[in-house]
Amino acid sequence: MGPVPLVEPEAEGMSPTARRALQERRLRRLLTRLLDADGVQAARLRDAGVGHAEEIGLDDLPALPFVTKQDLWDHYPFGFRVDDRIVCVHGSSGTGGRPTLVPYTAHDVGVWAGVMARALGGAGVTRSSVIHNAYGYGLFTGGLGVHHGGMRLGATVVPLSGGMTERQVRLIADLGPDVLCCTPSYAIHLGEALRDSGTTSPFRVGVFGAEPWTGGMRRQIEELLGIRALDVYGLSEVIGPGVACESLDSDGMLNVAEDHFFVEAVDGDGRPVPDGTPGELVFTTLTKTGMPLLRYRTGDVAALAPPVPGGPRTLRRMSKLLGRRDDMLVVRGVNVFPTEVEAVVLGDARVGPHYLVVEDRRDAGRPELHVVVESAHDVVADLTAALRERLGITCRVAVVPAGAVPRAETGKARRLVRWDGGPPPVAGLTGPGR
Ligand code: DLL
């Protein structure tokens, strides 16, 4: 593989010492903006004893207060806004239908375009590329994030948004795009639709994110579409996609755009964990102006790492997401991340890529984990054994025919459902007689 050029070399390739000085300057400017705005975060800073930004350096960050999703909900819709020059709003519908809204200034949109251009450039996308963008356009940041970044790079963006798969297949056949951007689950769905229509995949590379996916899913996508599949991470509260992204040369980890988004990883009590140890990601938006956040606790779990030694990119990296703090299931006392189930399921070549984990809480005293897979083979015994080996608990494996697990054509795949009572969440799941 040849070298992958940097899109913003002064930022992506700067010496870590110079970057730290830049981050510290930007942190003080951020604190000044927050204190001047005199909003929720200013009050908390004053309570923590911070009167002037100049008193604070990066080393003091761990002593400053966190912001949580609950805080954003408590001050919904715009209680954390500190600048009224807002040009657009994005957000996520969120769990339980509680939306989170994020106001952006023109400056913020510029930062976003820059970090997404880096993400695409690191995947080998160039000005002559055609990007088939099947992330949803709307409040969700996926569609417009790729759109801004692709245009900043000078590539051609085809704004498909999600859904209407037949039309997508038609445009892929007609335009021959070399880059695919969408959720990993939709990449599989689209890949199967291309195969079924007899269309050869023209793609060279794909940039996938917005939902958890494992190395097993990556291999399936790469085989199905004949591409390199890279990971992009982000969240609306921080900016959208582009907070961190894998590049062709980042050794399977994601380069964090830490000149804009200072990253920490903390344990359950909020204390820093060392590099290599999984922790909850906490971001400080050093340069945002519309709704800047100091120490936002994401709930996402990953391990941090230094840059690739000797590589052109000097940004710190994070592992693929290992899970979410609130996604972690505790089944009969054992902690289980759904991504671990995926790793086992996709490790069996006889099983299709669409699966569902059902957390069965119908009997609160005897919770069960069902794993519903699509296969033409009797894989129950083998999968049960492999899951027991990996997770330390016995799951109930149900095999259903191809097509029986619900697909997400738009939005994020739902791979984990809770079953508290009533009919089973997927046909074919009978479970033990109760
Ligand atoms: O999902 C932003 C995005 C769009 C990222 C397109 C990548 C591509 P939200 O809708 O606010 O924003 O959801 C953010 O999605 O906290 C993670 O839990 C999850 N997530 C995002 N990217 C990944 C990823 C967008 N690459 C939440 N792997 C985050 C696993 C991801 N989970």
From TrEMBL:
Keywords: Ligase. InterPro entries: AMP-bd_C_sf, AMP-dep_Lig_C, AMP-dep_synth/lig_dom, ANL_N_sf, PA_CoA_ligase. It comes from Saccharothrix lopnurensis. CDD domains: PaaK (cd05913). Residues 83-283 form the AMP-dependent synthetase/ligase domain. Pfam families: AMP-binding, AMP-binding_C_2. This is Phenylacetate--CoA ligase family protein. Residues 333-417 form the AMP-dependent ligase C-terminal domain. Gene3D superfamilies: 3.30.300.30, N-terminal domain of ligase-like (3.40.50.12780). One of its GO terms (molecular function) is ligase activity. It comes from the Bacteria.
